[in-house]
Amino acid sequence: MSRLADIMAEKLSVPKEDINDETAYNVAKNWDSITHLEIVAAIEDEYGISLDIDEITAMENVGKIKEILIKKGVKDI
To answer: Tell me: the pLDDT tens digits for 26-45?
Structure first.
């Protein structure tokens, strides 16, 4: 989860070690709606994918983001 953890840590302004599958939207201190969109954009850029609205709204925690990326065929998360 190195690349995803890097993105999440940067966008949430927390140490990478604080990122885990349970890190969640509206629970993590800095994960609000604006940050959510920044995370989505960074993920799309990093992995060269496009996320649809259902996937974006389903991204409620890091574990769910990983599931979505795997379904999109991303291997190096």
So the answer is: 888 899 999 999 999 999 99
